Amino acid sequence: MAGARDFYAVLGVSPTATADEIKKQYRKLAKQHHPDANTGDAKAAERFKEISEAYGVVGDAEKRKQYDEMRRLGAFTSRSAGAGARRPGGGAAAGGAAGGFRGEPVDLGGGFGSISDLWSSLFGDRNGARGRAAEAGQTVETTLKVPFRTAATGGRVEVKLDVVEECGTCKGTGAAAGARLNLCPECDGRGEVSFGQGGFAVNRPCPLCVGRGQIPSQKCGPCSGAGELRNARTVAITVPAGADSGARVRLKGQGARGRGGGPPGDLVITFQVEPDRFFQREGLDLVAAVPINVAQAVLGTTISVKALDGSKLAVKIPAGTGSGKRFRVAGQGIAKGAERGDLFVETQVTVPESLTPEQEKLMQQFAAAGGLRY
Description:
alpha+beta, HSP40/DNAj peptide-binding domain, 8 helices
């Protein structure tokens, strides 16, 4: 939906927002409107597409610089100055609103060329029937939940993806087998129409042929003429040892398939490590809370603790140990490269909820003898 749209307004950020602020807002909106979270909601899918397109420009430092120059020169002002969108042949485009541009694209000066040229540099050339340019597939981003011990020791986890890809049956043309491809009457085969404002011209994909420049005499059955399909895919991800929440991996060529013979996009995985019922993580160190009773705390004991690899470790608890005391077992933490953390066994002294008469008598004797001091 490239066109005379304010991408800052689409994302809901100020034109002076920092790159981090824009990225944070994009992730928030993308999560809210992602098709996976809004199954069957066409409006959410369209909104997700707008958000992605906007971030593709203002989220890129160089494209944002060019886009800001276009805004400065008035390419996105709302002053009424024309009669709507124009086809290359001179007619008004379908759905064109009043207030479009008239005249030829204006040279920006300073080496920028025309607004139309600059817009094409941001969104790529769409040549329709004259040879649609190859487009790289979209980068797919997803979050992968990883079991605690898999993240600590490394392993493989499968992730299910739902991506929009070029239809393999019609190769993105939207045409059924044997169907004729006719020049789009709206854009005369260019795949784009021009919109104007105040003497400036901006190109955008033709709404009738969706930028392809051609209209099939019969639509492709599998994709209903859209030229693309939503496909489910399962990818096995190798989780490196020592991975933590927020860690990201990029898999080249594992994203959405490219269009027009373009290369596939990448798959970016963000790990979300699930909690463990026994271990807690502090960097590369592990903390294991182990309950001991009052007698063990007072008299001392040796307890058996399960290590990360499942082996048994004997840990000596000295007499007079209080709750919250930590005992270090060197080298039994998480290994990451040449580094390895330690395991800390943390005691939790448990107090019985009730005593037998004999136990209560013994405790009273123990207290009377000075065994309990505060």
